[in-house]
Amino acid sequence: EVQLVESGGGLVQPGGSLRLSCATSGFTFSSYSLNWVRQAPGEGLEWIAYISSSGGTIYYADSVKGRFTISRDSAKNSLFLQMDSLRVEDTALYYCARVDKLGMLAFDNWGQGTLVTVSS
Amino acid sequence: QSALAQPASVSGSPGQSITISCTGTSNDVGRYNFVSWYQQFPGKAPKVMIYGVSKRPSGISNRFSGSKSGNTASLTISGLRAEDEADYYCSSFTPSSTWVFGGGTRLTVL
């Protein structure tokens, strides 16, 4: 069974940092591209970052570019999101999501999310 | 990249069919067949219902179907059931190698 389990969320002050993790199991980690998608309270989904299966290709949404860093560790079968210079508007539930292997660029499996609250 | 446009809400009675539209531009929905639809229940993670405009993942009911015409994609749910009541989001890949989601549609089964 494919599983993605996020952790690392919490309360942080504006300007602070946080590192999210996504532990995966049930599939060959090195074969899949992964993403972070967030959802502000009561709002819709927002894609924020992508990393290819090899880690060699990375893309970010403009809203987080220069502040967030996506990475992955094949030895730990884990995905990470380093979040710096956090803003109030970064408050959201952060999901990790796997990209399908059929080439359809859909998110075929999601974690349950970890909540990040940025507030003074 | 602006969010794809979806109606905020749609409703239908059990057994009826409903369609949710997802309007983008010639640079996203109109350019690629990489449109997918996600179902989300309150407090739960999204679940892919349609990918590649019209393909259903294994285990998804054939009551769910997708299509696209020009810059607008659509999700149709036929034989509406109470259990279909949820939020639905469309998504498209873009030329910037990023993804854009729609604002979401709340489906109410009357």
Condensed summary:
Chain A is built from no helices and 11 strands.
- Shape call of chain A: globular
Number of DSSP E strands of chain B? 9
User: Given the structure, what is the number of helices of chain A?
Assistant: 0
| Most extensive chain interface and residues per partner | A-B, 23 and 28 residues
Span of the ends, CA to CA of chain B: 35 Å
Distance between the termini of chain A: 40 Å
Low-confidence blocks of residues of chain A: none
As a percent range, the share of strand residues of chain B is 35-45%
Mean pLDDT of chain B, to the nearest integer, reads 96
Describe what this molecule looks like in 3D.
- The complex is a heterodimer of chains A (120) and B (110).
- Chain A has 120 residues and is an all-beta fold.
- Chain A has strands at 3-7, 10-12, 18-25, 34-39, 45-51, 58-60, 68-73, 78-83, 92-99, 107-110, 114-118.
- In chain A, strand 7 and strand 8 form a beta hairpin.
- Chain A starts with a strand and ends with a strand.
- Chain B is mostly beta strands.
- Chain B contains no helices and nine strands.
- In chain B, a hairpin with a 6-residue loop joins strand 3 (35-40) and strand 4 (47-50).
- Chain B is globular, with a radius of gyration of 13 Å.
- The A-B interface holds A 35, 37, 44-47, 50, 59, 61-62, 95, 97, 100, 102, 104-108, 110-113 and B 1, 3, 32, 34, 36, 38, 40, 44-48, 51-52, 55, 57, 89, 91, 93, 96-104.
Topology:
The complex is a heterodimer of chains A (120) and B (110).
Chain A: E1 3-7, E2 10-12, E3 18-25, E4 34-39, E5 45-51, E6 58-60, E7 68-73, E8 78-83, E9 92-99, E10 107-110, E11 114-118
Parallel strand pairs in A: 2-11
Antiparallel strand pairs in A: 1-3, 3-8, 4-5, 4-9, 5-6, 7-8, 9-10, 9-11
Chain B: E1 9-12, E2 18-23, E3 35-40, E4 47-50, E5 64-69, E6 72-77, E7 86-93, E8 99-101, E9 105-109
Parallel strand pairs in B: 1-9
Antiparallel strand pairs in B: 2-6, 3-4, 3-7, 5-6, 7-8, 7-9
